[in-house]
Amino acid sequence: MKIKSVRARVFEWKGKTVPPQGNFCSNAMDLVYSNTESMSTFRFHSWTVVEIETDDGIIGLGNVALAPAIAKAIIDQYLTPLVLGQDPWDYEYLWQRMYRATHAWGRKGVTMAAISAIDLAIWDILGKSVNKPVFKLLGGRTKEKIPVYYSKLYRTNLDEMQAEAQKYKDEGFTAFKMRFGYGPAHLQKGVAENLKSVEAIREVIGYDNDLMLECYMGWNLEYAKRMLPKLEKFEPRWLEEPVIADDIDGYAELNQLSSIPISGGEHEFSLYGFKQLLDKKAVSVVQYDTNRVGGITAAHKINALCEAYSVPVIPHAGQMHNYHLTMSTLASPMSEYFPMFDVEVGNELFYYIFDGEPVAENGFVQLDDNKPGLGLTMKTEFLDQFNIIE
Ligand SMILES: O=C(O)[C@H](O)[C@H](O)[C@@H](O)CO
Ligand SMILES: [Mg+2]
């Protein structure tokens, strides 16, 4: 079997969007812009889809959501020539070709995301070529079904947040991730608002359910050190990305500071990036995204590393490329889950492009042993609401 063609298309959403308003989530730009501008950095309204076809007609699907147009350019100009004519079963060799050919300027960020998209499509081909789901190629079914946590609860007024938490508690979720709206730039009032929002959600879900807290890189070390002691009474399962991804020593200091586990990894890349996080004990929960970190080839290695370090893997975003990694290792107890909403920030777009994404039932998602490859097909229902750039 040989790779005959690679097609990367950018799907730009032009349909209805309902962007969350105000301080819906602290983020890295809060410290350099006033609120309005900083929130505008928070949009993922396009996605690059990769289709790799083999000489025997199998088509593998990959995807990348980080800087989609740039990722497409990297795929078209640099990665496609490296995989054309190659055997997809040589996936480790192909991964190393892509990684080393772009190493001088790649390694992390959008280049690794572009490599991930090619790698996802390759693994989709491998599964389809032997009529097995990808998780069966990685270690098989380690769980009857995958526990997932409900993820959204963007910061808005507390009544709306409580109603949202109640709705998804009633749907059977037992774990919830909420977003802080405030950080260092919002001073003591922001501290009070942050604590009020955690208290409000705990009021709804109680203490029999897990609560995770998301900062999305919007704090700094000094502010996080002030907040952690105030948050301990709420017994969060983790505090996520309190500082920017490059502040690994800051992560490590926070991770030793209190009883609250620090999580991160959705903005870390490659086996080496996670080796560094684990060696420095910077995180207690690893949250790579398989369409960023280096694809299934890299994520599978990181799963093994996390197993050796006894650090749980709870991948970012849910989405099928991550569910196969969670299903195939005991190192991953659960995954994130975004229900399908009107397009807001953009995590939801996956549902508008692909069919096959499992819908949570009672806080679990299920994978199908009889669906080969990743188990995704292209959705046609919303095609007219995308500009598609070849
Ligand atoms: O952990 C997450 O889900 C990410 O940080 C989100 O993708 C981001 O939208 C912040 O909520
Ligand atoms: Mg996050």
UniProtKB/TrEMBL annotation:
Signal peptide: none
Record key words, sorted: Magnesium, Metal-binding
Stored Gene3D superfamilies: Enolase-like C-terminal domain (3.20.20.120), Enolase-like, N-terminal domain (3.30.390.10)
EC number(s) per entry: 4.2.1.90
Span of domain Mandelate racemase/muconate lactonizing enzyme C-terminal: 158-261
Molecular function GO labels: L-rhamnonate dehydratase activity; magnesium ion binding
Gene Ontology biological process terms, A to Z: carbohydrate catabolic process
Cofactor entry: Mg(2+)
Keyword NADP tagged: no
InterPro entries: Enolase-like_C_sf, Enolase-like_N, Enolase_C-like, L-lyxonate_dehydratase, L-Rhamnon_dehydrat, Mandelate_racemase_C, Mandelate_racemase_N_dom, RHMD-like
Subunit field text: Homooctamer; tetramer of dimers.
Homology family: Belongs to the mandelate racemase/muconate lactonizing enzyme family. RhamD subfamily.
The protein's name: L-rhamnonate dehydratase
Species of provenance: Polaromonas hydrogenivorans
Source species taxonomy: Bacteria, Pseudomonadati, Pseudomonadota, Betaproteobacteria, Burkholderiales
